[in-house]
Amino acid sequence: MTAASAEQRREPIVSVRDLQVRFQTSDRRATVKAVDGVNFDVRRGETFGIIGESGSGKTTIGRALVFLLNPSAGAILHDGIDPTALSRTEFQNHRRDYQIIFQDPNAALNPRMTILASVLEPLELARVGSRAERERQAREALERVGLPQEFGERYPHQLSGGQKQRVVIARALTLKPKLIVCDEVVAALDMSIRGDVLNLFADLQRDLGLTYVFITHDLAVVSHISERVAVMYLGQFVELGPTEEVAERPLHPYTIALLSAEPRPLPSAMRQEGRIVLQGEVPSPIDPPSGCRFRTRCPHAQPLCTERVPEWRELKSDHWVACHFADRPNFSPN
Amino acid sequence: MEAGQPAQRRAEGARDGARPLLSVRGLGIRFKTTQGIWQATRRIDFDIAPGERVGIVGESGCGKTITGLSILRLLPGNFAGLDGKILFDGVDLASCSARQMRAIRGKRIAMIFQEPMSALDPVFTVGHQIAETLRVHSNIGQEEARAKTLKMLRRVGIASPERRIDDYPHQLSGGMRQRVMIAASLICGPQLLIADEPTTALDVTVQAQILELLRDISETSKTALMLITHDLGVVAETCTRMITMYAGEVIEDASVDEALVRPLHPYTSGLLRSLPHLSPRHGRLPSIPGRVPSIAEMPAGCRFRARCAHATKGCEAEQKLQDAGGGRRVRCHRFAELNLPGALHPPDAPAAAKVATQ
Ligand SMILES: Nc1ncnc2c1ncn2[C@@H]1O[C@H](COP(=O)(O)OP(=O)(O)OP(=O)(O)O)[C@@H](O)[C@H]1O
Ligand SMILES: Nc1ncnc2c1ncn2[C@@H]1O[C@H](COP(=O)(O)OP(=O)(O)OP(=O)(O)O)[C@@H](O)[C@H]1O
Ligand code: SF4
Ligand code: SF4
Ligand SMILES: [Mg+2]
Ligand SMILES: [Mg+2]
Known about the structure:
- The structure holds 2 protein chains of 2 kinds.
- By secondary structure, chain A is an alpha/beta fold.
- In chain A, 33% of the residues lie in helices and 22% in strands.
- Chain A is built from 12 helices and 11 strands.
- In chain A, the strands form 2 sheets. In chain A, strands 5-6-7-3-8-9-11-10 form an 8-stranded mixed beta sheet, with helices on both faces. In chain A, strands 2-1-4 form a 3-stranded antiparallel beta sheet.
- In chain A, strand 6 (179-183), helix 8 and strand 7 (211-215) form a beta-alpha-beta unit.
- Chain A starts with a helix and ends in a 13-residue tail after the last strand.
- Residues 1-7 of chain A have low confidence and may be disordered.
- By secondary structure, chain B is an alpha/beta fold.
- Chain B has 2 domains: 22-239, Rossmann fold, CATH 3.40.50; 245-276 and 299-357, no CATH class.
- In chain B, the strands form 2 sheets. An 8-stranded mixed beta sheet of chain B has the order 6-7-8-3-9-10-12-11, with helices on both faces. In chain B, strands 2-1-4-5 form a 4-stranded antiparallel beta sheet, with helices on one face.
- The N and C termini of chain B lie far apart (47 Å).
- Residues 1-16 and 346-358 of chain B have low confidence and may be disordered.
- Bound molecules: adenosine-5'-triphosphate (ATP) (2 copies), iron/sulfur cluster (2 copies) and magnesium ion (MG) (2 copies).
- One magnesium ion (MG) binds at residues 64-65, 114, 196 of chain B.
């Protein structure tokens, strides 16, 4: 790699500063702090993983990253610029480079459009090449995700869950964006096709320099695909670092519990116990606990944890954590 | 009987010769498409005993969801016909009246759908939707239904359920919607629960809690569970038996422990070898070379033939789901001579790379 490109890689493609996203509850009497003060950069060409608790705000961050919703406070910069400051047309063009693939493929597919038409749509909006050229590209994209020709003429309801998810992936890939937020995109796929699709993502990254933000509950997937991973709990990051570090030497008690709960495909005789079962109810983002948000379920909680919010600190190089006691050695799972 | 010993459990179940709760025989489903009639599944045979937990795995599109939907007779509009029998507690669901079916659906057989957003009605609050299921099938008042709904929401791990019960589906995260679906399916205490990818939208700690709940309900109330999933870890931790499907057929049926350690069908073995955490980090993931045959070119004989490393001449003949001894069944005539690797035989790296690039 030349010095210039190494330099380029270091400049973040996305910078997130003090991001907050709030929603009103249905009775309008309370506020859900879905994302509550998150800071991170996504580096050009990397795969940035986000794992964490259900309802902790992962999808909300994903939507904010591509400006499908506006931050309630804080800023998101793309390539150093603030997209909300662009003119309407500039913003529309800019947006094409930042795509999101959703958790639920039904939300992304028009039920009245054939599969081929759905994949063609973004190419048509972007006026790529001739009609024949667009159709060739769309069919090629479907082929790449393992869907035979005959699926082009079908409608979404005639496809299985995993087949629909692959259509949505094919559709996002045709545009060759700079960044794709992938929200649980391989969960609906069987192991073998999942392998194919993840290999495809890796190929595109290598060939086109794509950057991914990969949101998933599958720890094996995240540790396979991403360079860095962030762990979310109740609207905040609790840990962020190189994936191998986080997976093998986790610093935060929530991360440790999460890693221990991964189900393993082993016969009953070989399965080890040692799973950390979190006690207590999942607190609500409407009124999160004082001090450390994880304290109501943390096996190591101390009085200090109720009183003071743990600082977000870089405990090891590039490895961040928010826990008062993360530097204590007795935290590790074994 | 002890929990966590699926193999033993299965053997005991078989010994008492308990009458199966569900008995599917020769099930096949056809659809009308613009390209003609499409035979989506065929010759599906399996039994589920009361309290048994069966995992259904297989490649995306092999027919898992439509098999589940056919048991509830909830097939889509372009459904063109069904062969075979679906015996549930002695009644053939394939031929019973729509009225009989309505009394069974939601009460005696419930289903957790693969896509919670499409299964929940966007114009009603989640509390209303769960309480309605209960009120349709039992004679209870609004207050009581609401109280039971709150209790169930708490049981599936929804924080502050009294604040969430009046939320609309779009206000919930993916995982919360999924838990709402699970609450709705369990509220009437079904005898058979068909759960289609019930935990893929959940983080692993909540997943562990839901799986525990499902296991608990199956043990205490003898609810039979048909668990459709791509996650073999979930099958290993929750189920007693594993049925593998490929291209619209059942190709293997064995206890979970046996299937994981010593799969008898080359496809099951390939699936186990594709598990990501068995592969070197950041290397290429192993996958089964080739693609599922398209319906137009479905080969005669073994449907896995074009992708199978063990194919021989005899594979061109129709493969029957045959008895492999010890309560196992497999659709491959070579099962006895092949010694296939399972989840415990991590493929060595160079071989894995070869598979992926083939
Ligand atoms: N439109 C909305 N109105 C009200 N609350 C919302 C809305 N969208 C999301 N929320 C709330 O914000 C919080 C975070 O939701 P989000 O979908 O980002 O979670 P998530 O981490 O993606 O969870 P999951 O893993 O379950 O998909 C949840 O409490 C959710 O109920
Ligand atoms: N309404 C329909 N019309 C035509 N074909 C259909 C219809 N519904 C499903 N199919 C086809 O039937 C096959 C089985 O679908 P099914 O949804 O059961 O798959 P699945 O095993 O659940 O897959 P996944 O793991 O991706 O959810 C698929 O190839 C699908 O394309
Ligand atoms: S700050 Fe306290 S409560 Fe929070 S994670 Fe650390 S030890 Fe647990
Ligand atoms: S019948 Fe032949 S082709 Fe089919 S799985 Fe067995 S060995 Fe392979
Ligand atoms: Mg989400
Ligand atoms: Mg399905």
